[in-house]
Protein: RNA-binding S4 domain-containing protein
Organism: Melia azedarach
Amino acid sequence: MAATGSVAPWILRIAFQTFSFSHPPLPNSCIHGTLRSLAFTTSHRHSGASGICHLAQAVKGNVDDLLRSVGDTSAIEEVKHILEMARRASSRRNVLHTDFLTPPVLKESVTALEKLADVKAVAQGGYPQAERCRLSVGHPEALTSDPDIVAALSITGNFGFQPCSHGDFLGSILGTGIAREKLGDIILQGEKGAQILVVPELADYIISSLEKVGNVSVSCAKIPLLALEYEPPRTKSFKTIEASLRVDALASAGFKISRSKLVNLISNGDVRVNWATVTKNGTTLKTGDIVSVSGKGRLKIGEINSTKKGKFAVELIRYL
């Protein structure tokens, strides 16, 4: 789902994060322009041919193990492709780029890349809360700065009397003939139109090809990433006392629906935790987890404390 002023998942809420593989994967965040970046590097650097051979052996010997650890089975093929891309880029000492990835694929990919030696990856969506991002991978000596791989366009028209939805903009853009993976987030701007993120090589094509969104005539122009107008997510926090930290208990409390209905949603594959589909009602949640329920929105698990009666006082943050 593209950003429309709504919340982004855990991996999309910050502008820059650096992970060291010698430490647990807890992010240290800082702002880095308007680009959303994740940099992954190893604590054991190798130089020359030994580093290249180490990476090649790691990918060749462990790719099946890495893929078995992928929680979202629908992402396996794309993660496999990205792992192979990382191997090629690092062995050749160059940098390769993916198209825009969905949050589940991005999450699973960076989790797998954390386990490879001599690989650095940078994910960019154009702004701090972007959901769809491109991933650049390469050897740390080659990937020394954030590549310029995301372009922004402004789509303007008279939408005051004919408002258009996210689907209207998406359909019209794809109607020009470009593939969905070449398009990032769509930021709706009400009567003004929308701003979109695209791969730079297709920016001019969209400008010349997109003439209407719905029944509204539009014009397109390139804009700098600094000109993107996005809003931080609106949230509402409240606390609940629960006997367990199971997903069916906390999600039912957070979304104000019955536990039995939540169980049915899990059975139908409509519940995700950190973008991975949940298959078990008893999945245990922890602070920082993001729960998504189709048609209901998203929920973040906040602070968790034990009560004197052996239960759990849990802060739930509902995204509006």
The two ends are 15 Å apart (CA to CA). Residues 1-61 have pLDDT under 50 and may be disordered. The helical segments are 48-68, 76-91, 103-113, 166-174, 203-209, 247-255, 259-267.
